[in-house]
Amino acid sequence: MYSEDDLLMLSALQHLLFCPRQCALIHIEQQWAENLFTAEGRVLHERVHTAAMESRRRIKVEFDVPLRSLRLGIIGRGDIVEFHMQDDKQWLPFPVEYKRGREKQDNSDKVQLCAQAICLEEMLNTTVPAGALYYGKKKRRMKIVFDQDLRQENTTTSAKLHGLIESGVTPEPQYRPACKSCSFVDTCLPQAMGKKNNVEKYMEKILSP
Question: Are 103 and 199 in the same domain?
Fold first, then answer.
């Protein structure tokens, strides 16, 4: 269990899985860079967060929900949490996270959503078996089941996140195709810096006794 003083931003889990260097630039060096993609995402989230609570007969909808887990050591806010009435009249939480683009090949979005579910389970003393990711490009939901593998990935990723932040060290850049869509690409310079690091390592190797 982590203390209140140890809590890190829930969104950092997604940043870490996308790129450890990006995560460190944001959460260690306190940098931020915006491009078209982040601006569209910010506007999308602002629209969701300023919506009022909705209520239907068997579904209640809460927007911009505060979330926290002492087990994972994270804190943040959820875009939407739907509460679905079950046959036994109990309300089952169903988190929904909005993303501007398309489904990612990695698990970063799924881990972020599952972390929200773990927070809700801890806060409400309940079980949250599933949630949904809404992707703006396709304008449809994708249901995500929070199985044991995804939950374990949350535990592992949160531990890595705390380790990274405690170290205070920003990882060296490593270029990959996803860098093209990153808002830090012009400040991180992964291609140029990666080549520089390779040259420095080569020189150290040939000059070492």
Answer: no
Q: How far is CA 203 from the centre of its chain?
A: 38
Residue count of the chain, please give it.
209
Residue with tokens 């169903």: 94
Q: What angle do CA 22, 75, 65 make, to 5 degrees?
A: 115
- Residues 201 and 136 reside in one and the same domain: no
Q: Report the distance separating Cα 23 and Cα 36, nearest Å.
A: 19
Structure tokens at 101: 């683009």
List Cβ neighbours of 88 (8 Å cut-off, separation of 6 or more).
none
CA distance 45 to 168: 29
14 and 55 co-located in one domain: yes
Indicate whether 39 and 129 sit together in one domain. Answer: yes
Helix axes 11-18, 108-124, angle to 10 degrees: 160
Q: Does position 201 have pLDDT exceeding 70, yes or no?
A: no
What pLDDT was estimated at residue 186? 78
**Domain of 71?**
4-171
Whether residues 113 and 157 fall in one domain: yes
Q: Which of 18, 20, 13 is nearest to 151 (CA)?
A: 13
Specify the pTM. 0.79
Cβ-contact 37, 183 below 8 angstroms: yes
Q: Average pLDDT of 24-28?
A: 93
Do both 106 and 40 map to the same domain?
A: yes
